[in-house]
């Protein structure tokens, strides 16, 4: 386990995290919008000194391993391998590493072997002939077949499973877990049969799944048992529908370079674009962009251009993708394909037209306004109601007020209604949406005492004179019981540490803390404190918190005594009453002292 620590030592956490999200220096820490929950003001903090991160919004936090695991949805062993490579640490082949081949890695390997198999059958085997000529007919060159590693799954139903079990010595259970085969009457059967095979890679080049297409054109009538046009690998450990794109592995760098991603519906659309040198293209492999897909794209692109099929379903997909796109603040545009039904057809029939259309992309809101104005009669009251009823929910998604106003004005002009009445209707939409609860944050509400204890500990740890301030706490809170005893433990350890050491070194100090308390210390270390001008003001702030804690403590005691008072024996009651009186006196004294 030594290697785990060595890798962690060598990785600089802020530079690692800034490869994924933009970090801004704020004081001695870095801040960012949290990648793990939706927010408008940054509460995600990274400390270069402590090499830790924490989000004050959703409560997630940790070190380089937890960040990578969380962000890339990895198991520990995968994160370790990636970071070791980055750090230049060679992992010894200990049992831990060897056995640590994750389930996911096993699936990637099986998928790679299967992809080789399918590709071989398509390009070299007589069984693949029919499929190959189908691809040639669709103008897919041998070079493109190579680039996308397209393959063919034979129709017999056992070829791949037999190859993997007999030649490659895999267990049937491995095949079932990978989704490549299924069990039918006790036999292992290939999942994909008689289909053109498109491998789907994630953005880290792992082969996570396949998409298989039947060999016939849509207009040909379907034989009753042929199945749907496209079939994807079912959800496995390595693949979740709605979180991947076809082509992202090849398009990633090009998308980064252009800061723009073109989104199409299917594999053939991507491949056709590619044949024309347009390489920042991915296919959604589903009906609309999901939030997972958008957050993946937002790592590489600032602008997304939707180029979906020109039919009712494509229009619905645009509408449904929009909320996810707006949440990530991506600029979204649309391509008008005229009379062509999809990008593949447009490119095959008129590549020049397609390239021009790409350059003349339309803002998504302009497009939606146009579409609804054409769909309903804008001369009648009923038509106006339908147009605004359809459009305002989308316009309400716009985060930027100026952009929002621009489109409202445009709409008021074209509908010949006043800006005011549009605003009123928009407010109704917003009110309706406000009733839906926001992103739930899995955290209980803290008590005032807990909040103050956290703030106090942060003030002391981050302050210039932790020794004096800690002494001040114990002098004032001798009779105080902590709602979160871990803060008390941190302050006690701090006092002990500063009795032995001249200077406060947070790394050395952290080592004196029990493991279960460390995360709380990290949180206090990263806590955003208000700006406090000088040492005197700093001490006053600490004293102010101490006073309030004292008052809360006394109030709690008073409450607990008075609650039980009536159930006690008369003798006991007398003692308690006395105690109560003195507490009330104390409360008055503290209150008047803190008012001075
Ligand atoms: Zn968060």
CATH architecture of the largest domain: Orthogonal Bundle
**Quick one: how many beta strands?**
16
Strand content: 5-15%
Q: Pairing-aware structural class of the strands and helices? A: alpha+beta
Explain what the structure shows:
The chain folds into five domains: 97 residues, Zinc finger, CHC2-typedomain (DNA Primase, Chain A, Alpha-Beta Complex); 135 residues, Alpha-Beta Complex (DNA primase DNAg catalytic core, N-terminal domain); 113 residues, Dna Topoisomerase Vi A Subunit, Chain: A, domain 2 (3-Layer(aba) Sandwich); 67 residues, Pheromone ER-1; 147 residues, DNAb Helicase, Chain A, CATH 1.10.860. About 1% of the residues have low confidence. It contains 27 helices and 16 strands. It is globular, with a radius of gyration of 32 Å. The protein is α+β, with helices and mostly antiparallel strands and 596 residues long. The chain is 54% helix and 11% strand. The strands form four sheets. Strands 1-2-3-4-5 form a five-stranded antiparallel beta sheet, with helices on both faces. Strands 13-12-14-15-16 form a five-stranded mixed beta sheet, sandwiched between helices. Strands 6-9-10-11 form a four-stranded antiparallel beta sheet, with helices on one face. The structure holds zinc ion. Zinc ion binds next to loops.
Descriptors for this entry?
five-stranded antiparallel β-sheet; binds zinc ion; alpha+beta; Dna Topoisomerase Vi A Subunit, Chain: A, domain 2; 596 residues; DNA Primase, Chain A; single chain; 16 strands; 54% helix; 27 helices; five-stranded mixed β-sheet; DNA primase DNAg catalytic core, N-terminal domain
């Amino acid at each position: 386990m030594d290697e785990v620590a060595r890798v962690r030592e060598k990785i600089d956490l802020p530079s690692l995290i800034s490869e994924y999200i933009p970090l801004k220096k704020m004081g001695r820490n870095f801040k960012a919008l949290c990648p793990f929950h939706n927010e408008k003001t940054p509460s995600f903090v990274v400390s270069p000194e402590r090499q830790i991160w924490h989000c004050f919004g959703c409560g997630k936090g940790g070190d380089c391993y937890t960040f990578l695991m969380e962000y890339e949805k990895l198991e520990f062993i995968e994160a370790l391998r990636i970071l070791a490579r980055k750090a230049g640490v060679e992992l010894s082949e200990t049992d831990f590493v060897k056995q640590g081949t994750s389930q996911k890695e096993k699936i990637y390997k099986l998928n790679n072997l299967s992809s080789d198999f399918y590709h071989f059958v398509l390009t070299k085997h007589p069984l693949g002939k029919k499929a190959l000529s189908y691809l040639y007919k669709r103008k897919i060159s041998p070079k493109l077949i190579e680039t996308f590693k397209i393959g063919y799954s034979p129709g017999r139903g056992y070829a791949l499973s037999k190859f993997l079990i007999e030649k490659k010595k895999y267990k049937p259970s491995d095949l079932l877990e990978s989704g490549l085969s299924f069990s039918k009457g006790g036999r292992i059967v290939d999942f994909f049969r008689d289909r053109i095979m498109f491998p789907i890679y994630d953005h880290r080049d792992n082969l996570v799944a396949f998409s298989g297409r039947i060999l016939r054109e849509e207009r040909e009538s379907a034989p009753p048992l042929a199945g749907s046009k496209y079939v994807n690998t079912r959800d496995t450990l390595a693949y979740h529908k709605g979180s991947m794109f076809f082509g992202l592995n090849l398009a990633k760098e090009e998308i980064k370079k252009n800061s723009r991603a073109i989104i199409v519906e299917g594999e053939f659309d991507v491949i056709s674009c590619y044949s024309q040198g347009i390489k920042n293209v991915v296919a959604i492999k589903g009906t609309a962009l999901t939030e997972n897909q958008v957050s993946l794209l937002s790592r590489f692109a600032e602008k997304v251009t939707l180029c979906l099929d020109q039919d009712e379903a494509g229009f619905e997909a645009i509408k449904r993708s929009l909320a996810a796109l707006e949440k990530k603040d991506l600029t979204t545009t649309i391509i008008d394909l005229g009379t062509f039904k999809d990008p593949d057809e447009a490119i095959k029939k008129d590549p020049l037209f397609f390239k021009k259309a790409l350059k003349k992309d339309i803002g998504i809101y302009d497009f939606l306004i146009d579409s609804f104005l054409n769909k309903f009669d804008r001369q009648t009251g009923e038509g106006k109601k339908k147009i605004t009823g359809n459009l305002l929910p989308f316009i309400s998604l716009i985060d930027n007020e100026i952009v929002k106003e621009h489109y409202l004005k445009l709409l008021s002009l074209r509908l010949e209604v006043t800006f005011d009445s549009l605003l009123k209707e928009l407010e109704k939409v917003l009110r309706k949406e406000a009733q839906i609860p926001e992103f739930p944050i899995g955290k209980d509400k803290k008590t005032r005492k807990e909040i103050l204890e956290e703030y106090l500990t942060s003030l002391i740890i981050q302050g210039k004179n932790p020794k004096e301030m800690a002494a001040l706490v114990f002098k004032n809170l001798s009779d105080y019981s902590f709602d979160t005893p871990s803060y008390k433990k941190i302050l006690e350890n701090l006092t002990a540490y500063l009795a032995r050491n001249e200077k406060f070194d947070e790394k050395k100090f952290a080592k004196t803390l029990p493991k279960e308390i460390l995360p709380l210390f990290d949180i206090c270390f990263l806590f955003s404190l208000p700006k406090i001008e000088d040492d005197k003001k700093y001490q006053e702030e600490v004293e102010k918190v101490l006073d309030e804690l004292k008052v809360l403590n006394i109030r709690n005691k008073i409450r607990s005594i008075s609650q039980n008072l009536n159930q006690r024996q008369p003798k006991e009651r007398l003692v308690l009453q006395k105690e109560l009186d003195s507490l009330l006196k104390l409360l008055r004294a503290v209150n008047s002292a803190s008012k001075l």
